[in-house]
């Protein structure tokens, strides 16, 4: 393949210096309009495209950040799966393309959108990877070798691999933390959110038989569970239903709720660790003929789009998911400029959103 035109060819054709060509593409406000037109015309005639890799070599950076994420609905084999008890009938082929909000956007998607927007705003390229857990360490290493810094959802990668990468480039974790020293971390105030939603059920609706349920243990979910317990204790309410993490054992969320319905031991409210869990609980209750919220209230945590459109609409705690993604980019770029700073652990605020599933009107 013939070598393409360079900045030198453009400068010669336009009759300007190579610095002027560089400024035209990188900082056009510093170049007179008439000169910019000359440079752009010359570049167009020659078919010149600025080389990001060349600029990166000059600055010692690639000008790109990486994001290693995961697909909530991807099973360990790499194919479409059912996480957290998501019913098979909402995972039909083509549902994503048809705009099924049960499948997209989810929590991960909204955080990723924030990363994308902030990279675009700051002129950073973004390399996104993830997928099959069988080869995610190789994919992670490949991405890390091409970028200046890496944003990651910790549960999607091996701890040791991430620790090795963090010794070479800045790494920021979102949501859960692997508690690796030297990494920045962005999360939300899980405790205040879970406490607020539990107190609302007790004080706002007079409910005292509450059950916490989630698809799996995690640092986020553990914080929510602990705050749930604390809110019950502070209100003098006895914990009558033991919290359930069915995916940690043999049962899914859906199967657990079906069993509870069959036994006739329903609580007055299910306080769910996530919105995805809450939507599954509502599906099972509807199939069993249990009316929400008339017979049982249901609440979630995250604030995904599906919770707004399901009927009854879902009472939840809204995480600032886009802000989380943007903040990861901010932290990575700041870490590149100030590598000597101590690790940052940011906790962003959350917001209680009252809707129909607890017995309120949508707020």
UniProtKB/TrEMBL annotation:
<dbReference type="InterPro" id="IPR000843">
    <property type="entry name" value="HTH_LacI"/>
</dbReference>
<protein>
    <submittedName>
        <fullName>LacI family transcriptional regulator</fullName>
    </submittedName>
</protein>
<keyword id="KW-0805">Transcription regulation</keyword>
<dbReference type="Pfam" id="PF00356">
    <property type="entry name" value="LacI"/>
</dbReference>
<keyword id="KW-0238">DNA-binding</keyword>
<dbReference type="InterPro" id="IPR010982">
    <property type="entry name" value="Lambda_DNA-bd_dom_sf"/>
</dbReference>
<feature type="domain" description="HTH lacI-type">
    <location>
        <begin position="5"/>
        <end position="59"/>
    </location>
</feature>
<keyword id="KW-0678">Repressor</keyword>
<dbReference type="InterPro" id="IPR046335">
    <property type="entry name" value="LacI/GalR-like_sensor"/>
</dbReference>
<dbReference type="Pfam" id="PF13377">
    <property type="entry name" value="Peripla_BP_3"/>
</dbReference>
<dbReference type="InterPro" id="IPR028082">
    <property type="entry name" value="Peripla_BP_I"/>
</dbReference>
<keyword id="KW-0804">Transcription</keyword>
């Amino acid at each position: 393949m013939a070598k393409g035109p360079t900045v030198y060819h453009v400068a010669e054709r336009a009759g300007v210096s190579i610095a002027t060509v560089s400024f035209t593409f990188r900082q056009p406000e510093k170049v007179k309009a008439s000169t910019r037109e000359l440079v752009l015309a010359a570049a167009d005639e020659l078919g010149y495209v600025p080389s990001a890799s060349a600029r990166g070599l000059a600055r010692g950076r690639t000008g790109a950040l990486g994001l290693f994420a995961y697909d909530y609905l991807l099973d360990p084999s790499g194919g479409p799966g059912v996480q957290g008890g998501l019913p098979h009938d909402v995972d039909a082929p083509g549902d994503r393309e048809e705009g099924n909000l049960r499948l997209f956007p989810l929590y991960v998607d909204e955080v990723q959108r924030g990363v994308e927007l902030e990279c675009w705003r700051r002129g950073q390229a973004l390399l996104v990877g993830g997928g099959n857990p069988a080869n995610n360490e190789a994919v992670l290493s490949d991405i890390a070798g091409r970028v200046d810094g890496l944003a990651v959802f910790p549960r999607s990668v091996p701890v040791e691999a991430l620790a090795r990468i963090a010794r070479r480039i800045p790494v920021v974790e979102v949501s859960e933390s692997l508690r690796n020293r030297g990494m920045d971390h962005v999360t939300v105030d899980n405790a205040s959110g879970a406490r607020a939603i539990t107190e609302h059920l007790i004080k706002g609706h007079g409910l005292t038989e509450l059950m916490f349920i989630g698809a799996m243990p995690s640092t986020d979910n553990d914080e929510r569970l602990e705050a749930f317990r604390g809110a019950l204790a502070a209100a003098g309410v006895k914990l009558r239903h033991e919290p359930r993490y069915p995916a940690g054992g043999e049962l899914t969320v859906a199967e657990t709720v079906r069993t509870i319905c069959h036994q006739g031991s329903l609580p007055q409210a299910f306080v769910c660790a996530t919105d995805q869990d809450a939507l599954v609980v509502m599906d099972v209750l509807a199939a069993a003929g249990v009316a929400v919220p008339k017979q049982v209230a249901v609440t979630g945590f995250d604030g995904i789009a599906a919770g707004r459109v399901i009927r009854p609409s879902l009472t939840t705690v809204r995480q600032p998911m886009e802000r989380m993604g943007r903040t990861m980019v901010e932290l990575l770029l700041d870490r590149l400029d100030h590598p000597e700073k101590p690790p940052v652990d940011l906790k962003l605020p959350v917001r209680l959103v009252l809707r129909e599933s607890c017995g309120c009107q949508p707020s």
